[in-house]
Amino acid sequence: MEYPTRNHPSSFHQQTIVYPVISRRSRGVSIGINVSPTKQCTFGCIYCQIHVARTKNAEELAVLSPMIDLERLRRELLATVGSATSGRLFEDERFRATLPEFRRLNDFAFSGDGEPTLAPQFPEVVDILRSIRRELALPQVKLILITNSTTLREERTIAGCDALTAENGEIWAKLDGGTEADYLTMNRSKVPFSTILENLRFASRRWPVKLQTMLLRLRGQAPDSRWIDHYCAAVRHILSAGGTFRSIQLYTVARVPADSCCTPLDDGEMDAYAATIAEKTSLPTEVFYSK
Ligand code: SF4
Which residues 6+ apart lie within 8 Å of 155 measured at CB? Predict the structure, then answer.
């Protein structure tokens, strides 16, 4: 599940699994964990760069193993944490301009080149993150799963999410429309929309969940009132079934999208949508602009 506001490659120097980014959302250093070497995903979002790479390099990716080297993950994570907490990270040219208040380690986030819960080792990787967090005495560091919401009721995902949320963990789960048609337009998936809604209801009753929603201009058209009404009705439907969300994160296109028909909304439009959605769902909204 691609991190929507990270305008960074999911690699760092010689590292292939762990990569630091300065996250506007976290207001600090977020250490991304890329558990998707084959870029596997159950969505083909119209705004996703990774989806483009997946399609272009399908043959090459088909022969790769979905397994990652867990020892390597450990080594890379220890090195990256050491670099961030000692301040060495900010000597690197990519991080030199980091504002003083952002020079703090905020989280380890499952993100990267695909849907992380599809990774065969997802629960094992959660265990490694938990053990490093404990070993290095980093109780303030959050564990974040960024997911497209398609597997949230599957056994392995439940096991991983139970472990992750037992230690300052949070799930950021995607909902990009309020009807089957709107969802299919944005996410191009074989997973039925009803499954996404049921997964979100289940997850939000069990774990701390923030919703993530992409708002964009599609072939020149911003979301209209019908789109927003259906979206808010879908959120209210989950809430009325006992779900609860910490907030709704609204973001727009921040990098070259998969499909050139997607363009970003401007800051004023995002603010207006955020106000309407907050009013219609009674949930707090957080806005992430295109720049
Ligand atoms: S969920 Fe969408 S944005 Fe995330 S990796 Fe899959 S296709 Fe890309």
Answer: none
